[in-house]
């Protein structure tokens, strides 16, 4: 197996994302986590860009041990001087210098001809070598350059002392086979290539940064550059976690291995997201919140039988606790039964069918059904007597005048509808139910609380009714809609006293 060097540029290229500028403390916090992650090189910043970044690189060079600390420069002596100064205390310092090599960069941006570019590249590497032995050269916009010219530049900078040669797809223009071919071309056509490490550095403008990097690695590159969560200018850089896990999962296919501690991937991703403020999409490969969640019934049934059916990476590998099943409206009985068993409920047959039916009603209202919801579902089933069923209800209220409720109840096969006013929605609702059922018990207490998490949490309503004979009956109702939960609780309390339909409401056949 070839060793793959992992070069993290979250704090340099990643920080070039619009809206992220990290201060010394923030960079250092991420830097410490990158050391834990076990990357080989941390590109800490661009010291010439600002005094703040100079200080960040200097602090990281001083504080972070056991890892190469790198700073970026243009092929300009003043940049290299500042970078060398910032890296003075680094255990393993690296200066990363370079220049554009594509026609558009040379002609339009640098206003230099190819010979001048070669000359400036060589001079920069030689100048950086005066300060440090480890000098990486980047051939900016290499993918859009003439490969023959690129090979010439690379050969010259290696002769000048470059220890690593970086062949970037600066604008994310490549497709995997083309990028692989370019890396293969450089390796084959640069005579002294064995004196340097070839590095891949890809951008994600066409969504192919990871694929391109992997193609470059397969073609012989031994260093990969990227950022955590793929952050970076425009559409970002290669997501390091994706490359790391691709080669971890498919070692034989790539023939390389890294020393990264994959179990720190999740923690690193979360830290970078928190500090940069760049959220990770739920479906993002490796580190997205849903990356290891199985949400549909067929998949859930499969992973319960054997995780390999739908799982190529065990979440523990990246430091995430396994959450095998997330219950949603797409879950089936196997998944529900499994989650209930985990909570200590043994349900099967008709009881499972019954819970499953009520589970689906809830799941259609909520994005995800959590353990707390299941507790409620199970508790609720014991209390539901179903002699009075809430068919529909609507409330009209403007918050100033009396509220009006219209309610339809099915009572022992007969649908009863009525309306009543109240000094608030719940009061109007209870008054209407009283009219339909002929209830005369007094409402002694009414409470409402949220019993599960998330914005679609279940509300639990508790109603206490005092009957004429002195008995106190407690009813409970659960729903994501608190008015509905209140109606259910009221009905539950009434059911417990075997209320019979009264002539108060208009009658319909069920
Ligand atoms: C692909 C990449 O990610 S490259 C790295 C991008 N990172 C950054 O730009 C870091 C933040 N940048 C900065 O702080 C500033 O742009 C600085 C300090 C680097 C330079 O600032 P200024 O001196 O004001 O120059 P400015 O940014 O306006 O223009 C860049 C100049 O550098 C030249 N240049 C660009 N790249 C290189 C290079 N690799 N080597 C030599 N010269 C270069 C440009 O041609 C231009 O030169 P000109 O002034 O003669 O036209
Ligand atoms: C400066 C170089 C390494 C770069 O970030 C790029 O070309 O994308
Ligand atoms: Mg870049």
Automatic annotation (TrEMBL):
Signal peptide: none annotated. PROSITE patterns: AIPM_HOMOCIT_SYNTH_1, AIPM_HOMOCIT_SYNTH_2, PYR_CT. Mn(2+) binds at residues 13, 201, 203, 237. GO terms for cellular component: cytoplasm. One of its GO terms (biological process) is L-leucine biosynthetic process. GO terms for molecular function: 2-isopropylmalate synthase activity; acetyl-CoA C-acetyltransferase activity; manganese ion binding. Pfam families: HCS_D2, HMGL-like, LeuA_dimer. It comes from the Bacteria. It catalyses: 3-methyl-2-oxobutanoate + acetyl-CoA + H2O = (2S)-2-isopropylmalate + CoA + H(+). Transmembrane segments: none annotated. Its EC number is 2.3.3.13. Homodimer. This is 2-isopropylmalate synthase.
């Amino acid at each position: 197996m070839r060793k793959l060097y992992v070069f993290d540029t979250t704090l340099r290229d990643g920080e070039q994302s619009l809206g992220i500028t990290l201060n010394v403390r923030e960079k250092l916090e991420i830097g410490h986590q990158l050391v834990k992650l076990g990357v080989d090189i941390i590109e800490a910043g661009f010291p010439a860009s600002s005094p703040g970044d100079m200080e960040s690189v200097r602090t990281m060079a001083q504080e972070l041990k056991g890892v190469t600390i790198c700073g970026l420069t243009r092929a300009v002596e003043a940049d290299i001087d500042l970078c060398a100064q910032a890296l003075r205390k680094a255990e393993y310092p690296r200066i990363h210098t370079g220049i554009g090599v594509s026609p558009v960069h040379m002609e339009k941006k640098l206003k230099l001809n190819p010979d001048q570019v070669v000359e400036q590249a060589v001079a920069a590497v030689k100048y950086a070598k005066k300060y440090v032995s480890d000098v990486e050269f980047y051939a900016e916009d290499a993918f859009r350059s003439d490969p023959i010219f690129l090979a010439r530049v690379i050969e010259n900078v290696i002769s000048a002392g470059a220890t690593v040669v970086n062949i970037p797809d600066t604008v994310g223009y490549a497709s995997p086979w083309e990028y692989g071919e370019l890396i293969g071309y450089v390796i084959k056509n640069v005579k002294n290539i064995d004196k340097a490490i070839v590095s891949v550095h890809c951008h994600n403008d066409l969504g192919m940064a990871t694929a391109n990097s992997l193609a470059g690695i397969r073609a012989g590159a031994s260093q990969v550059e990227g950022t955590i969560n793929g952050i970076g200018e425009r559409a970002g850089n290669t997501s390091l976690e994706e490359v790391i896990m691709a080669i971890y999962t498919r070692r034989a296919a790539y023939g390389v291995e890294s020393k990264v501690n994959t179990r720190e991937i999740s923690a690193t991703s979360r830290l970078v997201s928190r500090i940069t403020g760049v959220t990770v999409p739920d479906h993002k490969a490796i580190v997205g919140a849903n990356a290891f969640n199985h949400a549909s019934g067929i998949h859930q049934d499969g992973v319960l039988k054997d995780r390999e059916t739908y799982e190529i990476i065990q979440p523990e590998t990246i430091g995430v606790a396994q959450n095998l099943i997330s219950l949603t409206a797409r879950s089936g009985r196997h998944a529900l039964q499994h989650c209930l068993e985990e909570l200590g409920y043994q349900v099967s047959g008709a009881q499972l069918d019954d819970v499953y039916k009520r589970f689906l009603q809830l799941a259609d209202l909520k994005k995800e059904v959590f353990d707390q919801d299941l507790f409620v579902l199970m508790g609720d089933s014991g209390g539901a007597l179903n002699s009075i069923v809430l068919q529909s209800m609507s409330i009209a209220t403007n918050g100033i005048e009396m509220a009006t409720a219209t309610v339809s109840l099915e009572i022992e096969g007969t649908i009863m509808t009525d309306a009543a006013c109240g000094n608030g929605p719940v009061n109007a609702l209870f008054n209407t139910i009283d009219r339909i059922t002929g209830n005369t018990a007094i409402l002694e207490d009414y409470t409402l609380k949220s019993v599960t998490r998330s914005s679609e949490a279940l509300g639990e309503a508790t109603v206490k009714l005092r009957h004429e004979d002195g008995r106190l009956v407690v009813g409970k109702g659960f729903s994501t809609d608190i008015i509905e939960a209140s109606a259910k609780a009221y009905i539950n309390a009434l059911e417990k006293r075997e209320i019979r339909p009264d002539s108060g409401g208009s009658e319909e056949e069920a």
